[in-house]
Specification:
The complex is a heterotetramer of chains A (311), B (462), C (251) and D (360).
Chain B lengths: L2 H20 L4 H7 L31 E8 L6 H20 L19 E8 L4 H13 L5 E4 L3 H14 L2 E4 L16 E2 L5 H16 L4 E7 L2 H16 L3 E8 L7 H9 L4 E5 L2 H13 L2 H4 L1 E6 L2 H7 L7 E4 L8 H14 L5 H20 L4 H8 L3 E2 L7 E3 L6 E2 L2 E6 L13 E7 L26
Parallel strand pairs in B: 1-2, 1-3, 3-4, 4-5, 6-7, 6-8, 8-9, 9-10
Antiparallel strand pairs in B: 10-14, 11-12, 12-13, 14-15
Helix pairs in contact in B: 3-13, 4-5, 6-7, 9-11, 13-14
Chain C lengths: L2 E10 L2 E11 L4 E5 L6 H9 L6 E6 L2 E2 L5 H6 L2 E4 L11 H13 L15 H13 L15 H13 L5 E5 L7 H18 L2 E5 L3 H7 L2 E6 L2 E6 L1 H6 L1 H8 L5
Parallel strand pairs in C: 3-8, 3-9, 6-7, 7-8
Antiparallel strand pairs in C: 1-2, 1-4, 4-5, 9-10
Helix pairs in contact in C: 3-4, 3-5
Chain D lengths: L17 H11 L1 H21 L7 H23 L8 H17 L4 H23 L4 H20 L3 H4 L25 H7 L2 H22 L1 H11 L1 H5 L5 H27 L9 H14 L5 H15 L8 H15 L3 H18 L4
Classes of the chains: A mainly alpha (311), B alpha/beta (462), C alpha/beta (251), D mainly alpha (360).
């Protein structure tokens, strides 16, 4: 295999691995940067994306004990993958608004630790609810027919078409949100909020429309990540935490509050993971944590974090 | 720590507990009465031959029911396997008390309890976590006075539980555990395994797969980076290289890996002819379906050395044509299989999986050994189990070896069916290519393979 | 010279919050730093007390460079700060508040004494008691700090700053939000502190009445830069100050 | 639980409610908490394992003490200092492995095993603390979580040859205490009824010791400073106290408690599971501590009893105990930040007020 081929191969792998992390990380990063709200329950949006998405695209099997005891069967709209990809961000956007109103808002004025605890608890509940209704076993979220199989890129190697589809979908979503934040009033509020923490400390400002919208947008992206990631990662209740931890690392590495930071952080984490898989596979799960530690030692605010660290 | 001392500890605790019931009011009496060391057999010694044997573990049984502990994953990644095992355990307890199933086939068993005792059972949830499994088992031993416990749907939980068995002098009949270590480096006198291991899988697969795909091929291995994966990887290398193939590379995938694409890409780039995916359960479903997704089956042949039904169901059509092994199949044509599968189907309305048969069989084996020994006294039951040969378990002739407590037995080499041919109702996901038999095709001596590392420990009556 | 800043500068991105500010404070003097909102008063104090690191410039304390030291190191050298908002420990009792402050004074910035009873440190307890008595809070020592009336909270805040017997005390708008009576009491208190303890005081204030009552010297900041520095009389007559800050207001 | 300085409490005049005051004075004493802990370890197993309603058993009693030590230490960090660590499994699991390896290769003396476990946890806490405490609040939680997971994956993969990887560490060997006292040796007579055997004394003894140490720490200068940091970190800094070092001290002290607990768990289980390093273990200790009630010594103990009881006994009867536990946890965080213990003490002080009338 040519040098160019392996470089391109490395890049494509990195992009594919990074995509899901980035989609989940953006929402975490923005709510952390603007609202100073730390949201472990963000992973619940990913779970909603996976499970509701599965129900829209195919058929969701209810085999949990509670579902069985009340005779709940399988539910499926069977609308196909694209329908799920289109509907889920809207649903999770709405769920995000609800979460802002009923979970986040009562806790804006409470200490960080309470925010973490309550969102951790809610993630636990969502996870266990899924286990109770849908069941704990792994489900198959099969890829759409048009993205099955592999595509040969000539000398650049052969890739699963689904990987390329993930990269494409993620790019479009991230770019759209980036433009939205860069060129609209909502975005202005977000950028101002990230820079001026005093302002957002006032509850009144936090509850205004732009911040609500941004909470929803972050949730929508996490939901979309669930649809995109469903066919790659396992569909089990624990997968929420499984993506949450790397996404948090992306935020730590990239710096809080900026989309560019999340993208850079995500790509770096992806690159380290892929690089280690190729060269020292035993260490591949360890490497991303080590990266986070190193970045933090060198640049406590993260690579793209401009805000002075005053904690 | 010597087993006798450990065991005496629990007896003392029980005694103390009994004394505690009397409460502080009885303190004066205790001052004179207690000797403090292992008098747990003072009372409640039912019809078990009086004081024939000294107290050991939970022997003698108090009352007229013997309690078994069924410790399976009811939550977590192996809960499907666990649920099927539990159904089989409960079925076995029912048959032992009331007849039916193998009880009617096996001469040792009466259908009227075991050795004069009714069979009672307690269940526990291992959550596929070694600590939880061990804690749950110790509750069964200590509080419920289980005389034997069984279960385990991963090597880690099995190894954790059998260590406890040895300490507490209570028998543990392993269920689903495929690691070489269970009856290798980590083997114990109080643990028994009917499941085959990775080593035997290698022996069974190599001749058939090499014959199918040809000589002098190059193979590439991905393996789950923990003990089971490592032993299986080593076994595959050993037996396929002995069969004339050569390994290009073998790469560990860390536990918890969800996305195998990078690993798989590396595998394709290696130019090897055959890819071994040494992953189990959920990981197995993931890696094989991602491999097919990535088009790897167009360039390479894929082998998944160890299969099970939930895993095949998860992978769906991806396993078409993929070779692997399993311990038993409900569609086998023999009487014990038919009897068990029918009883199971009648009770639960579904086809039993191979883990279910293991669970059923473990319970039956234990009960039969107790009947043969004429007592529940653990060392005697162990001696009955050791070296026992039988052919009425649905998978041909089997022998429980004395040297490492590993059953030498036949293994099914199977090949995945296409999505259209699969039938979830009857649990048909593959066709049986061959029943690799012991000792012709599989098996190893007591001084070789995993057995070489096994030291079983004491019976407890030395 | 007790404290001196040389070319103290702080930039946040494009914004220059503090621009080459030079201040001199003599021992025993009272300096007031005044200026309109956003003039950089609080930032200047934060640069001196170590909460922020200056972009450029130096802070000299008794001739020694203390630029870039941590707040606790600076406090340990005898500089103390009373916050604009009552920065106390609301869920702890008044006594507990004073004890924590006394620990910082008696045991230095860190001490390995986690297995010794606090109750056995008589020096700490005495200092806490003395501080509470000085500030007239002793009677309320068992009250949770958050239940104190606002004026008492501010006095507790000042007590925390004074527990360490500082040589130099920064008071950031000590009377903000107070009633006229409370303000009066506070000013009396400040004057008493000055006299009894001989503490050098740096006051950040808006209220001109207080400033002229308390200050020996006044420094005026505007848009981050110092535009005037002198005795109250000099400042009152300074045309730049009139122009930039005081506007047409009669003093 | 309010932790007054002892010097401040006595000397108050006894009025009408003198008896209650004297009782309060007694309760304020350090020795009272320790006596309470001793009384608890004598009485608890009798009630817990004999009353059919509880369905308990001795091994669970010992496990409760071990986890309670872990929880008490965790609360010194979370409840007193206000730092939420999501990676405490590192100290529990890391020390458990150190204990196991030490017992297999050097000595099986239980006290030495616990010592080695504690030292290991202290070293780990120093390293991880120095790295994680560079950032406060939320970042601290995320970083400790990340380091915890890192250690888990290291134990699982790269160090699998030493730790036993997924199978866990099986080579634990425990010798008699002080070379002579087998852990399984029971006591005679009254002692047997109350203290069962040497092993029970070991676990219960460490539990009492942990309570004593925690009470002392809470009443030391550190206790005051920890609470002050939790309430207003910046103010503490401007009192001339090195907040970073005190936070590190809190982290290391809490790590040391986790280390003792981890070492004892190795002795108790004679096995170390790799799951002891997994984030779920960290999550469990968070749930235990918060559920029981942060900011007190007996809150975490209450939480431990509740959690382990549900996990090991009720779990068989309620299929979705984790769901129930999660709901309970959120309710506590949301509405009763003082936890179960806080509810108990709340009721107690209400009763008191009723008794005393309007007495502040």
């Amino acid at each position: 295999m040519s040098v160019v081929g392996s470089v391109v191969g490395f890049m494509i792998q990195t992009l594919a691995v990074s995509s899901i992390y980035i989609l989940v990380a953006i929402g975490l990063s923005i709510t952390l940067g603007t609202l100073k709200f730390v949201n472990f329950a963000h992973a619940a949006m990913y779970l909603a994306g996976v499970y509701i998405g599965l129900g829209i695209a195919l058929e969701l099997q209810f085999s949990g004990d509670i579902a069985r005891s009340i005779g709940l069967g399988n539910v499926g709209l069977d609308l196909g993958f694209l329908a799920a990809l289109a509907i889920i961000p809207i649903i999770t956007f709405g769920l995000g608004l609800l979460m802002e109103r009923f979970v986040a808002r009562p806790f804006y004025d409470r200490p960080d630790t309470d925010q973490i605890l309550v969102t951790f608890g809610i993630l636990l509940i969502v996870q266990e609810l899924i286990r109770a209704f849908v069941g704990g076993r792994s489900l198959t979220f099969s890829r759409p027919a048009w993205a099955e199989g592999a595509i040969s890129l000539g000398p650049l190697g052969t890739y699963a078409s689904w990987r390329l589809a993930i990269i494409g979908i993620t790019s479009v979503l991230v770019l759209a949100v980036y433009l939205y934040i860069e060129y609209t009033d909502v975005g202005l509020a977000v950028r101002a909020g990230t820079e001026d923490t005093e302002m957002v400390n006032l509850l009144g400002v936090r509850a205004t429309r732009p911040f609500l919208v941004i909470f929803g947008v972050g949730s929508g992206l996490a939901g979309a990540a669930g649809v995109v990631g469903g066919p790659v990662f396992s569909v089990v209740p624990e997968v929420g935490v499984g993506v949450l931890v790397p996404a948090f690392l992306v935020v730590v590495v990239g710096g809080v509050g900026s989309i560019v930071g999340s993208v850079v952080g995500g790509l770096l984490i992806g690159a380290v993971e892929v690089g280690l898989v190729m060269n020292a596979p035993t260490w591949s799960s360890v490497g991303i944590y080590a990266l986070a530690a190193v970045v933090l030692l060198v640049r406590p605010a993260g690579l793209m974090g401009a805000v002075e660290v005053d904690e | 720590m010597a087993e006798n001392d450990t065991q005496s500890r629990r007896d003392v605790l029980k005694t103390a507990g009994a004394a505690g019931t009397v409460g502080l009011a009885g303190l004066a009496g205790c001052l004179e009465g207690g000797n403090g060391n292992g008098n747990g057999n003072g009372n409640g010694n039912g019809g078990d031959g009086g004081s024939e044997y000294p107290a050991l573990g939970n022997y003698p049984i108090e009352g007229d029911a013997a309690t078994l502990g069924f410790n399976v994953p009811q939550t977590g990644p192996y809960q499907e396997e666990g649920a099927d095992e539990l159904r089989a355990y409960e079925l076995a307890a029912d048959h032992l008390n009331n007849g039916g199933g193998w009880v009617d086939l096996w001469d040792d068993l009466s259908g009227d309890g075991v050795n004069g005792y009714e069979i009672d059972y307690e269940t526990g949830d291992t959550a596929t976590d070694a600590d939880t499994a061990r804690e749950s088992a110790s509750r069964m031993i200590e509080r419920d006075n289980a005389i034997m416990y069984s279960g385990g749907s991963s090597s880690a939980t099995a190894i954790a539980q059998q260590g406890l068995a040895q300490q507490e002098n209570v028998l543990f009949m392993c269920c689903l555990t495929h690691s070489n270590d269970t009856t290798g480096g980590d083997c114990v006198r109080y643990g028994f395994r009917e499941m085959f291991n990775a080593y035997m899988t290698g022996q069974a697969l190599a001749p058939i797969v090499t014959e199918e795909y040809g000589d002098d091929l190059e193979f590439y291995q991905l393996y789950a980076d923990y003990t089971w994966g490592q032993t299986q990887q080593a076994s595959m290398r050993q037996f396929f290289e002995e069969a004339g193939w050569s390994e290009v590379d073998s790469v560990p995938t860390p536990l918890g890996t969800d996305d195998y694409s990078t690993f798989l890409q590396e595998a394709v780039d290696s130019g090897a002819d055959v890819l071994f995916l040494n992953h189990y359960g959920l990981d197995g479903s993931n890696s094989v379906s991602q491999a097919v997704d990535q088009g790897i089956n167009e360039d390479m042949e894929i082998v998944v050395p160890l299969y099970n039904v939930p895993m095949a169901a998860g992978a769906g059509g991806s396993i078409e044509g993929v070779f692997g092994t399993d311990g038993w199949d409900a569609n086998l044509d023999n009487e014990p299989t038919r009897v068990f599968a029918e009883a199971f189907e009648e009770e639960y309305g579904s086809t039993p999986s191979s883990p279910a048969r293991l669970a059923y069989s473990a319970t039956m084996q234990y009960a039969a050994a107790v009947e043969r020994a004429g007592t529940f006294y653990p060392p005697e039951v162990i001696r009955e189990l050791e070296g026992y040969e039988w052919d009425n378990g649905g998978i041909g002739e089997e022998i429980m070896r004395e040297c490492d407590h590993q059953t030498m037995r036949d293994i099914l080499v199977v090949r995945g069916l296409s999505e259209e041919e699969q039938d979830a109702e009857s649990g048909r996901y593959w066709e049986v290519v061959e029943q690799a038999s012991y000792p012709d095709a599989v098996g190893y001596e007591c001084d070789s393979g995993p057995a070489a590392e096994c030291e079983l420990g004491e019976y407890g009556d030395e | 010279m007790l404290l001196e800043t040389k070319g103290l500068t702080k930039r946040f991105g494009e914004l220059t919050a503090v621009d080459e500010v030079n201040l001199q404070i003599q021992e025993g003097d009272s300096l007031s730093v005044i200026g309109p909102n956003g003039a950089g008063k609080s930032t200047t104090v934060n640069l001196i007390t170590g909460l922020l690191n200056p972009t450029e410039g130096k802070v000299l304390y008794r001739g020694e460079d203390i630029t870039g030291q941590e707040p606790h190191e600076i406090v340990q050298q005898g500089l103390s700060k009373s916050f604009q908002t009552a920065s106390i420990f609301p869920d702890l009792t008044v006594e507990r508040n004073a004890v924590v402050a006394s620990l910082g004074a008696e045991h230095g910035s860190f001490s390995l004494n986690f297995l010794r009873r606090l109750g056995n440190y008589d020096d700490v307890l005495e200092r806490a008691e003395q501080t509470m008595r000085d500030m007239g809070l002793y009677e309320q020592r068992h009250v949770e700090a958050k239940s104190l009336p606002y004026g008492d909270k501010r006095r507790l805040e000042m007590a925390l700053a004074l527990a360490s017997d500082p040589d130099l005390l920064f008071l950031d708008e000590p009377t903000a939000g107070m009633s006229p009576d409370e303000t009066d009491d506070t000013v009396d208190l400040i004057e008493r502190i000055k006299e009894e303890r001989g503490v050098t005081i740096v006051l950040i204030e808006h209220d001109m009445e207080i400033i002229f009552r308390v200050s020996d010297r006044i420094a005026v900041l505007n848009r981050g830069a110092k535009i005037a520095d002198g005795t109250p009389d000099e400042i009152q007559g300074d045309p730049d100050v009139q122009e930039a800050y005081l506007g047409g207001v009669e003093i | 639980m309010s932790e007054q300085t002892e010097a401040a409490t006595p000397g108050e005049s006894a009025d009408a409610s003198g008896l209650l005051d004297r009782w309060d004075g007694l309760r304020e004493r350090e020795s009272f908490s320790i006596a309470g802990a001793i009384a608890f370890v004598v009485v608890f197993p009798m009630i817990f394992t004999n009353l059919p309603a509880y369905n308990g058993y001795m091994s669970l009693v010992e496990l409760i003490y071990i986890w309670a030590i872990f929880a008490i230490g965790f609360d010194l960090l979370l409840g007193y200092t206000g730092l939420l660590s999501f990676g405490h499994a590192v100290f529990w699991g890391g020390s458990a492995y150190a204990a196991g390896l030490f017992s297999a290769n050097v000595s099986g003396e239980p006290l030495l095993i616990v010592l080695v476990a504690m030292v290991t946890a202290i070293v780990l806490a120093l390293i991880i603390g120095i790295l994680s405490l560079r950032r406060g609040g939320i970042y601290f939680a995320i970083l400790t979580l990340a380091f915890g997971q890192m250690m888990y994956f290291i134990a699982l993969g790269p160090l699998g040859g030493i730790t036993g990887g997924e199978d866990g560490f099986t080579g634990v060997t425990v010798d008699p205490l002080l070379g002579a006292l087998e852990l399984g040796t029971g006591f005679a007579g009254v002692l047997g009824t109350l203290l069962h055997d040497i092993g029970y004394v070991l676990f219960a003894g460490f539990f009492v010791l942990a309570v004593a140490a925690a009470v002392r720490i809470v009443r030391s200068p550190y206790g005051a400073i920890f609470q002050a940091i939790a309430e207003n970190e910046q103010r503490v800094r401007f009192l001339g106290l090195n907040v970073w070092r005190y936070k590190l001290a809190a982290f290391v002290i809490s790590g040391a408690f986790a280390g003792v607990a981890g070492g004892l768990h190795t002795i108790h289980a004679q096995y170390v599971a790799v799951g002891s390093l997994f984030w779920i273990t960290s999550g469990d200790i968070v749930i235990i501590t918060v559920l029981g009630g942060i900011g007190s010594i007996f809150g975490p103990v209450t939480g431990t009893i509740a959690f382990l009881y549900v996990e090991n006994i009720v779990s068989g009867e309620i299929a979705f105990w984790l769901l129930v536990l999660g709901a309970l946890f959120v309710t506590v965080v949301w509405l009763f930040p003082a936890g179960i213990w806080g509810i108990v003490t709340g009721i107690r002080s209400t009763v008191r007020e009723q008794l005393l009338g309007d007495d502040s």
